[in-house]
């Protein structure tokens, strides 16, 4: 049989779960992993251990692959172009992927598309940040005064005095951040100094007073077919995803459809191939703003493994292979995903056994990682008709595995 | 983390799908495979290539495993005892497994338990078979005359003349058969000669005039917890499983519960650990007889991958690790599994693409095997509320992949 070989760069849990989804598809899965012990490297037959930052390693890895895709966004754009020049399909391609790699490029592109984003600006030093803070304060004041999100005039509400900002500002390195890393919330010129020390360009964004975070996930294939998953609510704790509820509770149908259309439009205009997660802020004043883009399977889509007809992992693989996409519809009224973070105890096995005994319907997904405090080492999915019950079961299991719930 | 290592002997599709189910469980999976190209060996990290009939190979493989389990029943009993003597848990253990390895031992044990089976006898030559055929004819006649399955007297209905039997007889080698191999239906002394040529003991069984075949699948753990899956209907074509319907249509609740209790009783009394499939005949005169036992994940349980809360593969692994078992209940009203057999065309990929396009809800499970006519190379699962639709979708996909349906 001429079933193709998918090469995935990166040995994390996204690759691990992609391989799991690829087994029934009958495809061959090849992994480029930093170490032989990485989460995915433990479970994949065909593993190349090497550094994705080295072009020769990438080329050697890509030989014999029918397509290259990613567990993370860190492969340098010029290497991806080199692979394409070698004739290897890279999906998503570098021209799309750069929007998930570089927050400055992403913001400029979404601005050009007229897509609502938090107020933002590339800043070069703490003085730039102070000026941005004043502008953000004026914009917030204007919104409060007029109830109109789009007018930029109006009086500033901040104090502007000394080094304290009138409103807090979010600073992000344009490349390399994830899960709260490379992100700072600063309230003064003094606090704004740190982010510039790495020498990476820094993006300033208004600190959005959001009611909640949503995510719209879609999958698009090279021939242009696309599917949209239900819009979910994502609950972050300390900058890390804690819980995802599918679908987002009490989200009006029209807003959900608009968010799906927004994600489909971004996928189409940017030429994304594979899974695209659009992280959104739903503001207290009723706006929806794009927070981040991810062009790979994403934490906000883990619920699909047990809650949708076709998981994000299976559909990502189908997309990068240009196979027809699978049905993204939910199988249960409610599905809740809760991340399992490492706690103080390195051995989770007895807690894991307890969770299985307490809830025979619980779906546990472990990543094979050593436990370190705060590290994502797995997730659980629960589903059913009663949202309160489904949430409680997921939260209990995740908390018990972490060790924060004693019984 | 001290997550355990499960060693599975045999590199077929059952091991492949067990590994798939083991990835989210976070367990380590080790495979003993005949070749590096076997179905499971393509997708598992930790593969030992070797011969399961060689004790040294088995011992080397078992070193570092927390438990040994099986993709097939062919490992010699004395080797399993040797592994146990080495202190390696073997699950199911040799005392249970022998009932799935040796049909003579199985029949004797079920007789002792008073469990209804087809009329049967170990036979040594064609003359024995002729005598058995006469007895089977008398028993069938008695059932017809009285409507009572349990009386063995009454006049024979066969001719008894020459070498032709009054009723056909099923001959099976007591060890080594599967999927119709090692099984013959014979109608005369002349036809009965072949099965004895291998020198393996032969079991004669009445050819049961069944209305349909059912399967009751249960999973049992060492500490005695057990779960029962819904009883399914299994449709065989040319001795090979073609379609499984879950649950068995129009099976009265009481009969379904009796079949589940029968399977649970067999699992308990034989000390089975892991998945047990009890293949059953539902006769036209309303009896249920045990046909075969399998102590491993089984074709009649493949529907659970997409149709049950916990798949047979996940529950088999949980059982052999003595973890609490997962919920066996169905997720859809109807789930249908259809096996994909190889057809005349070695390349299935374009048919596979077509099937995905036609039915975005279709769940395809490919085994990574080369296509050979009649060989099981995958299966499909479909589910939904409308049994006719669910059956049509499964049958179409399986037929199209095989090449027997042109559109």
TrEMBL record, chains A, B:
Pfam families on file: ATP-grasp, PurK_C, RS_preATP-grasp-like
PROSITE patterns assigned to the protein according to its UniProt record, in alphabetical order: ATP_GRASP (PS50975)
Keywords recorded for this protein, A-Z: ATP-binding, Ligase, Nucleotide-binding, Purine biosynthesis
Location of the ATP-grasp domain: 107-321
SUPFAM superfamilies xref list: Glutathione synthetase ATP-binding domain-like (SSF56059), PreATP-grasp domain (SSF52440), Rudiment single hybrid motif (SSF51246)
Class of this enzyme: ligase
Catalytic reactions of this protein: 5-amino-1-(5-phospho-beta-D-ribosyl)imidazole + hydrogencarbonate + ATP = 5-carboxyamino-1-(5-phospho-D-ribosyl)imidazole + ADP + phosphate + 2 H(+)
Biased composition (Low complexity): 140-152
Listed pathway(s): Purine metabolism; IMP biosynthesis via de novo pathway; 5-amino-1-(5-phospho-D-ribosyl)imidazole-4-carboxylate from 5-amino-1-(5-phospho-D-ribosyl)imidazole (N5-CAIR route): step 1/2
Renumbered residue ranges of the record's region Disordered: 140-164
Domain of life assignment: Bacteria
Keyword ATP-binding applies: yes
EC number, UniProt record: 6.3.4.18
Positions of ATP binding: 103, 172, 205-208, 213, 291-292
PANTHER family named among the record's database cross-references: PHOSPHORIBOSYLAMINOIMIDAZOLE CARBOXYLASE, PURINE BIOSYNTHESIS PROTEIN 6/7, PUR6/7
Annotated family: Belongs to the PurK/PurT family.
Described function: Catalyzes the ATP-dependent conversion of 5-aminoimidazole ribonucleotide (AIR) and HCO(3)(-) to N5-carboxyaminoimidazole ribonucleotide (N5-CAIR).
Subunit structure: Homodimer.
Protein known as: N5-carboxyaminoimidazole ribonucleotide synthase
Originating species: Streptomyces daqingensis
Taxonomy of the source species: Bacteria, Bacillati, Actinomycetota, Actinomycetes, Kitasatosporales
């Amino acid at each position: 049989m001429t079933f193709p070989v998918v090469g995935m760069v990166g040995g994390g849990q996204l690759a691990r779960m992609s391989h799991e989804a690829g087994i029934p598809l009958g495809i061959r899965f090849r992994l480029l992993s930093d170490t032989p012990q990485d989460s995915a490297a433990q479970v994949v037959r065909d593993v190349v251990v090497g550094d994705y930052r080295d072009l020769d390693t990438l080329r050697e890895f890509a030989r014999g692959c029918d397509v290259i895709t990613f567990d993370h966004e860190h492969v340098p754009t010029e290497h991806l172009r080199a692979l394409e020049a070698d004739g290897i399909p890279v999906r998503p391609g570098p021209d799309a992927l750069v929007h998930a790699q570089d927050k400055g490029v992403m913001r400029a592109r979404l601005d050009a598309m007229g897509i609502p984003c938090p107020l933002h600006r590339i800043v070069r030093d703490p003085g730039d940040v102070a000026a941005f803070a004043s502008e953000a304060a004026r914009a917030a004041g204007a919104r409060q005064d007029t109830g109109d999100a789009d007018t930029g005039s109006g009086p500033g509400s901040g104090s502007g005095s000394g080094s304290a900002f009138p409103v807090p500002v979010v600073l992000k390195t344009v490349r390399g951040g994830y899960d709260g890393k490379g992100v700072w919330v600063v309230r003064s010129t003094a606090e704004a100094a740190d982010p510039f020390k790495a020498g990476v360009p820094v993006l300033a964004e208004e600190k959005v007073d959001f009611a909640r975070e949503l995510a719209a996930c879609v999958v698009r294939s090279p021939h242009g077919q696309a599917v949209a998953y239900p819009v979910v609510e994502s609950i972050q704790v300390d900058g890390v995803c804690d819980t995802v509820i599918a679908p987002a509770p009490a989200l009006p149908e029209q807003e959900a459809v608009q968010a799906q259309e927004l994600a489909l439009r971004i996928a189409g205009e940017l030429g994304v191939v594979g899974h695209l997660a659009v992280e959104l802020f739903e503001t207290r004043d009723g706006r929806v703003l794009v927070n981040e883009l991810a062009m790979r399977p994403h934490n906000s889509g883990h619920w699909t493994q047990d809650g949708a007809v076709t998981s994000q992992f299976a559909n990502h693989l189908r997309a990068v292979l240009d196979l027809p996409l699978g049905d993204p519809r939910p199988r249960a009224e409610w599905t809740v995903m809760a991340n399992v973070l490492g706690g103080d105890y390195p051995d989770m096995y007895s807690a894991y056994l307890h969770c299985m005994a307490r809830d025979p319907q619980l779906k546990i997904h472990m990543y094979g990682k050593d436990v370190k405090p705060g590290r994502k080492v797995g997730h659980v999915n629960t589903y059913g008709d009663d949202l309160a019950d489904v949430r409680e079961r997921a939260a209990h299991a995740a908390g018990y595995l972490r060790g924060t719930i004693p019984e």
